[in-house]
Design brief:
By secondary structure, the protein is α+β, with helices and mostly antiparallel strands. The protein has helices at residues 12-32, 37-47, 64-77, 146-153, and strands at residues 48-56, 62-63, 83-93, 97-107, 115-126, 129-137. Helix content is 35%, strand content 35%. It is globular and about 45 Å long.
Length: 155
């Protein structure tokens, strides 16, 4: 699916190349998460703008890759996520936004799979980097107490 929205109209090959570049960037970004914890963290630094606003269900807003990596270290220490396989179901892409329906399959450091999470994501893109990222999912599908425990204790 390709959608059209832009405050700055573009035509022809240039516009399609921007849309395709945004689609590929988000697919590559999500694809890194299943390789290793280090690859996932490296993808945050590579694809997120330094001041990127990150909003996830039942989680305080995070600002930039450093805060997200700190949060992920807490999640990892709580044996919630080491890696995450992502199955992209649908993507709608414009010149400056990617909307993605996906299934996140969470693998904890202890092994196995601890959650399969239907997720809806919206990412704003500027100058080839994600500047704002919103993830929406049903927190009831998370491992018991995981998000609430991290928020309450900072563990």
């Amino acid at each position: 699916l390709w959608a059209t929205r832009s405050s700055e109209p573009r035509r022809g090959k240039h516009r399609m190349s921007v849309i395709e570049a945004n689609r590929q960037m988000v697919a590559d970004f999500l694809g890194e998460w299943g390789k290793s914890y280090d690859a996932m963290c490296a993808s945050f630094r590579r694809y997120l703008a330094p001041d990127c606003l990150i909003r996830m269900t039942r989680t305080a807003d995070l600002h930039g890759p450093d805060e997200l990596i700190g949060f992920m270290a807490q999640v990892r220490a709580a044996d919630i996520i080491e890696t995450m396989d992502v199955e992209i179901l649908r993507m709608v892409v414009t010149d400056d936004c990617v909307v993605c329906e996906r299934i996140d399959i969470m693998h904890p450091p202890s092994g196995g799979t601890n959650a399969t999470l239907p997720t809806f994501s919206l990412m704003d893109i500027r100058d080839g980097r994600i500047t704002e990222w919103h993830d929406y999912f049903d927190s009831a599908d998370m491992p018991t107490g995981s998000v609430a425990t991290i928020e309450a204790t900072g563990a």
